[in-house]
Every structure is written in C-alpha cells, then in structure tokens.
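Q: My labmate handed me this sequence with no annotations at all. I'd like to see what the chain might look like in three dimensions before we decide whether it's worth expressing. Could you predict it?
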Amino acid sequence: MVLMSDNSKPVLAEIVAVAQRGEFSQAERAARDYIDRQPGNEMAWSVLGYSLLQQRRVDEAVATYRELVKRFPDNPLHWNNLGTAKRQKGDFREAEEAYAKALQLQPDSAPFLANMGLLYLEWKRVVAARDYLCRAAQLDPTDYEVRIFACQMCLECGDEDRAGQILEDWKSWVGSISGSLRVELAAMLLRIGHNAEGEALLREQLDDPESSAMARARLVVTLERFNRLAEARAMCEQLPDPASEKSDDLRGEIMEARAVIAARGEDAAHARKMLENLLGEPGAERRDIMTWFLLAKLCDKLGDTSACMDYLRLAHEAQMRIAVQLVPELIEPSANPMNITNYAVSEQEFRNWKPVDAPALEDSPIFVLGFPRSGTTMLEQMLDAHPGMASMDEQPFVQRVIERMQAMQWQYPEQLGELDSAQCEQLRDTYWRAVAQLVQLRPGQRLVDKNPLTMLRLPLLVRLFPNAKIIFVVRHPCDVVFSNYLQHFNAPAYIALCSTLPRLASGYATAMRFWNRHVGLFKPQVFEWRYEDAMRDFDKHVERLGAFLQLTDAAPLRRFSEHARRKGYIGTPSYAQVVQPVYASSIGRWHRYREYFRPVLPLLEPAMQHWGYDA
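A: Here is what I predict for the chain of 615 residues:
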C-alpha cells in the first residue's frame, strides 16, 4: 500500500484532492508545476510519486521516491513508499531495505509492518510474512485485508489454530470489505474447513460486478474439489474469455479453473496445453507449484514419463524452498523427517508394562493405518458408508495425546508402561474430547480413525486401546513411493520426505521396519488389507474385512463410491479417486518409471520381500 500524508498546506490542498479523486494524470501535472516553482516542497514530491505509481509508471515513481528519501530522510512515509515502488518493480531486496528503514524510524506502524509482510508474501518467505502480517493485524485489527493475508500465511506455515483465531469474528466485519476481499476471505474459510460458509460467500459475489469473475473461477475449483463435477463444469462454461481480462491475476485464475476442469475430463493433452500456457502468464509464480504437480499427473496419464519427472523435480524443489523456512534442519539430506521412528519400545520395556484397565472393542476406535497413498482413503470411505461406523478426515489427535503425555512429564515411549489406569483414562479422555469436536457418534456407532502415519505411533495405540481393531493397508512399495512423489502435500516434514525418490524410499523403508518390529512385539489385532488383491477380488475381501470387524452385514462397504460422492468433500489427495468404483489401473504404474527407481530398489527390497512383492 502507498501512503500519503494528510498534513498538506492549504495551497496544496487542491492538488492533493485531485490525486485522492483518482485523477492521477492531472495530479501529476499539477505536482510537477508546483515543484518547478518550489523544488523543496515535500508534499508536492509526495503527490508526484503517488500519482506516478498509480499510473503504473514504476521506474519514474522509484526515481521520485529516491529523491524524497534523499531530501527528507527522516520521514518514514517516503521510505515505505519507496519500498512499495520497488516491490511493484520486482526489486524485492531493495524493497526490503526501504521498508526496514521505514520501520527503523517508526517500529510500531501497522501499515509499514503490513507492507513488509506483503513483500515477504510475494517473495514466498512465508515465516517472515506470517510474523509481520500477524503483528500488523494485532496492532490494527480493523485492517481486514491484512488479517485475511495473515491467515493465509499462518496456513502456509501449518499454523491452523492461529489462522482460525484470526478469522474467528469474520461475520462481524465481512460486510465492511470489498467484493474482491470477500473472495479472498472465502478462500481462507474453505482452507480452514468452513466449507459451507466459504462456498456461500463465493456465491454471494457472483452478482457483484467487481468480483464476479474471480468468485466464479474460485467456485469452479471449489466445486471440483468437492467432487461436484456437473456443477463445476456448468460454472466453468460461464467464465469469461481469459484473453479479454486485463488483470493478470484474474486471467490466471480463469485459466487455472478451466485447466482443473479439463484435467478431470478425458482430454489430458488439452488440459496439459492449458496448464503450460498458464505457466507463461505474468504472475505464474504464485501458482507454479500447484501447476507443476497437476502437469506431472497429466504427463503421467499421457505416458510422457520424462516430462512428468521434470515437472515433479521443479515442484519439489520449490516446495522445499518453503519448507526449510519452517524447519531449517530439513535441508540436510541426512535429516530424518519422520524422527518419531527413533522412538521405539524395547522387548524389556514391554515386558515391564503395568497391567491397566482398557476399554472394550466396542468402545475403541477402528484405526486405519498404512503408509500414505496405499489406499487408506478408499478403505475409510468404505467403513464410513456403513451405518455402524463414522469417520473423520485425517486428524492429528493421536499425536496430540502424545504431546499431552509429555506435558504430564512422562517420556514417550519409554514411560508408557509406567502409566496407571487413571492416567491412561486421562489420556483417552484427551483423545475423545478432540474427536467430539468433529464427530457426534450415535449410540452403538464406532469411530473410524484414519491417519496413515499413526502407524508410527502404534505403541500408544496398544497402551490406550489394546482391544482396538487395526486395519493395515499394504500396497506395492514402488507404487506407494511413486504415488507419494506425485502428490502436493503441505506438512513441512512430509514435503521434505517426498522431495526426492531416494529420501522417500528411505523413509518408507524406515517406517515399515518400525511397524513390522512393533507388530511382532505387541501382536495387536491387525487385519492386512492388501490393495492389489482387494482390487482384483473386491467382494471376497469385503467379506473378510466384515468378519474381522464383526459386522452382521458388510454390503454397505461395497457402495463406498456412492457414499463418497454424496459426502462431497474428501480431505485427502485421493478425493477424485474414491468417488469412482473399484479399478485396478493404478497397479504397477511404477514400472514405467523403472529407470528412475533403479537406484532406490535396494532400499525397498526388504519391504518387498516381507510383503511378497516382485521388483
């Protein structure tokens, strides 16, 4: 944001008023005339710089603000505006220096802090952007634009609780913001899980001349994400021609929406062309990671393995540049993104566990585990389709219990066995209170807790819910690794894990060693759902699963795709797959990438041998 002083002298009031009315060309001429007569007048120079910047004559604006800071170096406003001009020019380093000077002169200026935050947002320095924007929002809670972008940066940093707090009172101020900001607010509501409110807010903007095209483009992408494809395609038909839009952002949004819908259709080649055109648009760097991942999937579908891997490399490198801002140590190749695998229970420790009271099978969750991209989402939807069970999107509640245990000054997992019945019940209560915020179980209904990497927290599950049924999904390790490499994840540690095939294969191998060792030690009630066998003989495996879960009627499990379509929003990357009937086309997909897998096959071979898979 560019800021103008409001302490103008009466002789300059008319020039200032012309600029404030938006008549920038006229204001520029008047300011120049005034400077010719009085070259040392600060306000005239300020009006000139403001008018030039509003006319997008950025180089001239930069020169004007340079003159201002030279003549009046103690006025932080001019340093701030020089920073904004430099930011618009794309000179982020010099913009940062100018904003820093403004903040040195006036440290608690909410607008100055906001501008620094917006600079870091564009620069993809997400941690710094979050910190500056949140500080600005704290100083001026009525700057709702800053609050919306502070929320966005909190989400980029994985700080969902803080993001929700920033928008907690959004209904009280939504009426005071512009249509374009309402579209941005809707996007944030959707990201924090307020799906109905976010969609409704987008629909409210469809008749607003200022924001209708942007709202329609965002709604297309939202409906596609909710698996409401017929509505998404109908909405896409109403989008304007992107070539007719002057705004780079709007043109990009329209192209992205059309490409997303095309990618869900049969013409992958056309969708690829649209996305590659999108990458050539101004401002494409704002959405390049998503575009690269989507292009990789389309190239895989088209059989262009080389292009697929090239796009994946670009996407993962860009993601890592963001992830290391959040967890700097992840940049080291030797770092273990899944360091929880370092915390194992020894045989001696397990033998020394105290006997404790435990809930019955009916009062325990059903845990669906397995390495991500093994097929856990399909299994979750199968179980959720049964009236006797209810699932929730992946939640970190088991990890929260571990954190609660540590807050109670107990070491995990070394002191699990020292917990008595009352302490175990206290930890179970932590779990169930978190669940109750999302799922209201009916009498007799059992909770399905699907979070694949809870497999690495098996010691806690066995201690708190020793009678729980656990379904472990098994799939060919190479298919699992490739499918993970093909996905866009948000958690920094998992971004790092998936950043290269060797790192991902090593992480997979470590996770499987951890799981197999502890299953052998604890001997919990585990049903292995082998993905490939289930796809080839689905009905047989459904019956076996139903028997394991002691279901009187397993038929609802077969209708999972219909249930998933009715459900709409599925909070995992598999949202487009689980609304389809059973298919086996993804089995063995990794073979097309054998040359890329050759160096990592030795890492995966122990798991392949354990599960009986061929290389």
